[in-house]
Amino acid sequence: MVVIPDLNQGAEAIRAFRSGKSRFTYTGTRDVRVQKGGVLSGSRRMVLFIDAYNVVNMAKEVEEWVATGPAFRTPTAVQPPRTVHVGLRLSL
To answer: Which pairs with CB-CB distance under 8 Å and at least 24 residues apart come from 34-37?
Structure first.
């Protein structure tokens, strides 16, 4: 992107590359959910669950600095690290 600051309507960012001439890394993640439910008594239920996000802990870039200049195409964000959530859900 090229930022043009001196326009009548104010600064404007303009794409500075042809269509199809820029590409990004594929950023899929592997997420897993495991849960086990059971009956406590009567109509009361319990569910224990574990959610894991980005199980293989990939850290690929997901965003780049797109304005022309010395920082052009410098990664500005990467995939979040592996995260695990454990929980218990009760239905009373």
So the answer is: none
DSSP tag of 30: -
Of the CA atoms within 13 Å of residue 31, those in its CB half-sphere come to 11
Tell me whether strands 12-14 and 32-41 are parallel, antiparallel or unpaired.
Answer: unpaired
Give the pLDDT means over successive 10-residue stretches in the chain (92 positions): 84 76 73 95 93 92 80 85 96 90
**pTM, entire model:** 0.61
Alpha-helix runs per DSSP H in the chain? none
CA dihedral 9, 15, 18, 24 (to 10 degrees): -160
Q: How many residues does the chain have?
A: 92
